[in-house]
Structure formats: C-alpha cells, structure tokens
Amino acid sequence: MTGTVLTRGLRIAAALALTAGALAGCSSEGKGTPAWTAGSPGAGSTASSTGASSPAAASGGSASAGASGSATASATAGATAAAWKTYSDPGKNVSFDLPQEWIAQSVTPAQGSLPGALKIEVKDADGRYLATLQTGLRPQAAAVCKPGTAKPYVVVSSVPVELPHLGGEGTIDPHVVFRVIQGYKYFGSYGITNVVGGAGGKACALRNVVRGPEGKGDYSFGDLLELKAFAPDQKVAPAQSFDTLGEADKYVNEGSEFANVQRMLMSLKIKN
Fold first, then answer.
1. Angle, helix 245-254 to helix 2-22, in steps of 10 degrees
2. Which among 198, 210, 63 is positioned nearest to 133, based on CA atoms?
3. What stretches of 107-222 adopt beta strand conformation (E)?
C-alpha cells in the first residue's frame, strides 16, 4: 500500500512539474476549445434572475500565468450544483452564473477605483466568502521581485476564456486558473488573469487580474487579487493552503467547490 501511495504521489508531482515546464513559453497559450477541468458545463439547470442574486442580496443582506498543458479533467471530478441562476448589476455591465443557493452582493468599490467601478462579493449559502468581482481597477506595474526571493509555483488548472482585454508585453489571452505557490505550505488561489507569472516556474506574486481595454481599467474575479507565499504569522485566508501538491490536485479535480467556482468564473460576461 505504501508503495502505491508513493507512486501516485510521484505521478502527481511529475505531472505538475511538466505543467510548469510547458508554461515556460507563451506562443501556444490559450489555444483550443475551453474544457471544464472539474465538473460538467452542462450539469443541472440554469435559473435566471437579474439584479440581486438572492432574497438576502436583494435586501442588502511561469513565464506564464496559465496555459494549455495543465492538469485536465479526471474521472472523479466533482459535480457542479444542480440549479444555477444569473447575477447582473443594475446597469447590466457585468453578469455571471452561480449556484442557486449562493449569494452575490454589490459592495463599495475599492478606494481609488475608476468612476463606474463595480465590486461584487460572492458567498455560499452559509455566508462563507468565495470570490470577488472587481472592475475599474487602476492598472499597476508588477512589483519588483528581488533576487533569490521568488518561490516555485505550478498551474494546477488553466482554461482559456473569452473576455475583453488589453494585450501587449507581459500578457497572454485570459484564462481561468488555479495556481499553487510554495512556501511553508502550498498556497493556492483561483481567478481570471491575462498577466504572466514568473520566469522559470518561480514568482514572488501571482496576480488574478485581467488588463482591461484602454481607458476601462483592469478587472479581477477570484478569491484574492494576488497570491504569494505567506509567512507563518500572516493570515492565509481566503487563499487555500495544502500540505502537499497532491492535496491541491485533489481539490481541483475531485471537489465540487472548485467545479462550481470554475464554472462561475467561466461564465463571466463584461459589456464593452
């Protein structure tokens, strides 16, 4: 039994290492048809609504960031929720689907955001935070990574998604990703991005941000804006933390939470 477990662990580590290697180049990034890494895009029915997404909400209650070659669906992938609904802001500038029992609520945009910016938080039925959609973020230059401080990272899941974006140096086509960076634990985060990670499979921080069209600002949809290797005395949440890469792989490819989150992120639509 010990030999079997060890062999499986080595297979996972090897697969993730190959993923990081494949992401060293960006030329083939974002090619192919999007495929669900966890769950099925056709699972369940979709209930549509506009504005607040629930009664509670209505009442106010690598060288690459992600690319082809990453882990794909497994036979035991988690299933998505049976019933879904659609959230749209009052101005119908953004919309996305989410499980029927989840809550999406508009909150005050981050200080310094561009005029017309939106900030929408998503929580599960128990009020546990899952993700935030932010638009109108002022573009920020990547922080300088001091020599010797970059940490190894891998892209456990990466799926191309059609979203408006600004290209250019340091960008790729937008992807929905789940990435893990190594610190005293393996810290993971999901989100949308078109910003490259770090060279040689190492980075100081991985940003869940898409460079928006000229004059529109950047936008983000994920559990946090930036993933890094946290120190033992720092608050980790809402980032995920794992003792092994195998645990991260299992979260992505077997759990229903990521299946639901990924489907929600993939459904994002932004006007103009």
1. 80
2. 210
3. 119-123, 129-137, 151-160, 171-182, 186-195, 202-203, 206-207, 218-222
Strands 269-270 and 94-99: antiparallel
Give the Cα separation of 183 and 162 in Å (integer).
Answer: 32
The amino acid present at 38, given as its one-letter code, is: A
**Residue 86 near residue 95 (C-beta atoms within 8 A):** yes
Write phi, then psi, for 164 (nearest 5 degrees): -65, 140
CA atoms of 265 and 263, how far apart (whole Å): 6
Q: Tens of pLDDT along 34-93? A: 344 443 333 333 343 333 333 333 333 344 444 333 333 333 356 789 999 999 999 999
Q: Which of these, 176, 209, 175, 204, lies nearest to 190 by C-alpha position?
A: 176
* pTM of the predicted model as reported, rounded to 2 decimal places: 0.75
Question: Could you report how far apart the first and last alpha carbons of the chain are, in Å?
Answer: 55
130-165 CB burial, b ≥16 within 10 A, e <16: bbbbbbbbeeeeeeeeeeeebbbbbbbbbbbbebeb
The dihedral through the CA atoms of 229, 234, 238, 243 has a sign that is positive
Quickly count: other Cβ atoms within 10 Å of residue 199's Cβ.
13
Please write the tens of the pLDDT for every residue from 207-229. 999 999 888 899 999 999 999 99
Tokens of 31: 């090619």
Phi/psi class of residue 63: alpha, beta or left (left: φ > 0; alpha: ψ in -120 to 50)? alpha
Distance of CA 68 to the CA centre of its chain: 15
Q: Are 84 and 97 in contact (CB under 8 A)?
A: yes
